[in-house]
Design goal:
222 residues; alpha/beta; 7-stranded mixed sheet; two-stranded antiparallel ribbon; 6 helices; 9 strands; 34% helix; globular; methyltransferase; Methyltransf_25
């Protein structure tokens, strides 16, 4: 049992069902178009490579909100001891199909039972924006406690001030989830409040596929 329980988002079940509905379309999109695959995005790949280099031999890495396992699989190819978790059972089915060599399990970021100083690295790669604004700080604090001294955390998310309710996605499939956007300085502040030390930040301008984004990497102090 966690020493610090995290509030359960009121919409967690609806969000899970929504991602189950789009999981097959999303996995097909990644495989056929490369959208969402860091190998096709040099700056995102560089961020993940820097994270992998920093984690080194520190220990296990957890990809939280791994979706169909694209980044998990890439880090496995890099030689890291990595596993992935996702809220959506159907996303995990796709991850296991596409990356059978990797370990995956179904879990919400709010339900993880992580031991103190048990991980060398944690990723929240475009996967934490559905967490309510009062829940994200709790999750970040849990990640910080789970990292070993010197361990690394990397997050990527959508930039903005608003909360956007999405009603269809990936082939006009009906969904229901809220994207909570954050200003880069807000996200950095939350990461610092969780007890981590930010070490790098990458700001991404809007393009033809998505709005602006930000990548932040931080360490647990040694």
């Amino acid at each position: 049992m966690r020493a610090h329980p995290i509030d359960r988002p009121a919409d967690l079940d609806v969000v899970r069902e929504s991602y189950d509905q789009v999981a097959d379309n999303y996995a097909h999109m990644v495989v056929t178009t490369g959208m969402g695959d860091i190998r096709r995005h040099p700056w995102l790949k560089a961020s993940i490579d820097a994270f992998a280099d920093t984690v080194g031999e520190l220990g296990p890495v957890l990809d939280v909100g791994c979706g169909p396992g694209t980044v998990t699989g890439y880090l496995d190819e890099r030689g890291l001891d990595v596993s992935g978790v996702d809220l959506s059972p159907r996303m995990i089915e796709n991850a296991r199909r596409l990356h059978p060599q990797c370990r995956f399990s179904v879990a919400s970021a709010t339900e993880l039972d992580l031991g103190e100083a048990s991980l060398g690295g944690v990723l929240g790669w475009w996967s934490l924006f559905n967490l309510p604004r009062d829940v994200l700080p709790q999750v970040l604090a849990h990640f910080a406690r789970a990292l070993k001294p010197g361990g690394s955390f990397i997050a990527a998310t959508h930039v903005g001030d608003e909360d956007v309710v999405r009603t269809e996605a990936y082939g006009e499939v009906p969904v229901r989830w809220t994207t909570h956007k954050w200003r880069p300085e807000q996200l950095v502040d939350l990461i610092e409040q969780a007890g981590l030390h930010p070490v790098a930040e990458l700001r991404l301008p809007a393009d033809e596929q998505s709005g602006p984004g930000v990548v932040v990497m931080a360490k647990r102090p040694a």
